[in-house]
Amino acid sequence: MDTIKDLGEFGFIEKIKTIFEQPDNVIGIGDDCAVIPMLDTNLLVTVDTLIENVHFFNNHSMDKLAIKALNVNISDIIACGGIPKWAFLSISLNPMMQISKLDIFLNQLHKQCERHNIYLIGGNTTKDDKLSINITLIGEAQKPILRSGAKAGQDVFVTGKIGCSACGFWALKNKTKAHSKCLERFLAPQARTDLIAQIKPYATCMIDISDGLLQDANHVCRASKVGMEIFLEQVKFCECDNLNMIDKITFGEDYELLFCAERRHREHILAIGDVSLIGYTNDSQKITIYHNGNIVKPDKYGFTHF
Ligand code: ADP
Ligand code: MG
Fold it and tell me: Which terminus of the chain has fewer Cβ atoms in its 10 Å neighbourhood, N or C?
């Protein structure tokens, strides 16, 4: 094993975990946020970087980029059942970037912070040929919801539609057509802050879908030591036809929420709206995917950086 590509993103994270001992009282590496207990609450901390040609193209509007940069982090905080509070912006800028473009970015970031009651209280600025944006977001949760909370015999739900961002990304990359909602989902995704208050009382575990439905379901299974049966005909997919179902469940960047709940809450949860029951947990420790009664074996699980 010679390169990081062989090790893979998650192999690399595992390596870090073996070197850096995690403190007993903190939920460290492995969830959507680190959870640090305080006297009467828990601090949640998450950090995400947006890189040109991976998360955005160089003609991405700065307005939409600001929405994306903050919302991908808000999504991690709410996936842990928390409320976002304080942000740090680290940004690498090309010296020839127009100030007017940067102003558009900052004004929209400010608008987003105001909308979500977040204060930007620090950061770091560096020079680079390519733009990269890194936001650290700190939030708070009385009762954090973790990836590790699922038990066998629970329902698995997902919010919204899956695959929109994938269709938007590939349409932009290949200069083909996609539904405008899908383009918007890739360019300026919104974290599901609209649903979180209704979901929170029922969720035994939760994750936001950033690496793909399948990969993120797998993260829950590994953290909770459960298996899952997922029924693809119950997943709501975006209507675009430029990608197949497997591409839509393995691309990621949907920023929808996947969560588990006890079966007795099923009717209440479905009544929230824009939430689909897509499967069940079991004690098999593996994910089995069905489509109309047939087992599907995808050749990939989801997005990794390497
Ligand atoms: P998410 O998709 O929810 O943002 P990631 O897949 O990026 O989560 O990360 C999974 C876990 O690994 C998180 O707990 C994150 O803090 C941790 N992690 C990722 N990269 C690193 C790193 N370079 N050093 C330490 N921890 C990391
Ligand atoms: Mg996440």
Answer: N
**pTM confidence score:** 0.96
**Does the pLDDT value for residue 1 go beyond 70?**
no
Whole-angstrom distance, CA of residue 228 vs CA of residue 245: 18
Label residue 54 by pLDDT band (50, 70, 90).
confident
**Residues that place a CB less than 5 A from ion ligand 2:** 32, 76, 208, 210
154: Cβ contacts below 8 Å, ≥ 6 apart: 204, 260, 261, 262, 263, 280, 281
**pLDDT tier for residue 117 given thresholds of 50, 70 and 90:** very high
Neighbours of 152 (CB within 10 A): 15
**φ, ψ for residue 187 (rounded to 5)?**
-75, -40
The rounded distance, in Å, linking the Cα atoms of 272 and 99 is: 44
Q: Are strands 83-93 and 34-37 parallel, antiparallel or unpaired?
A: unpaired
> Burial of 214 by CB count in 10 Å (0-12 exposed, 13-18 middle, 19+ buried)?
buried
Where does ligand 1 bind, in terms of residues with CB under 6 Å? 13, 16, 29-32, 48, 76, 210-211
Question: Which residue's alpha carbon is at the smallest distance from atom 19 of ligand 1?
Answer: 13
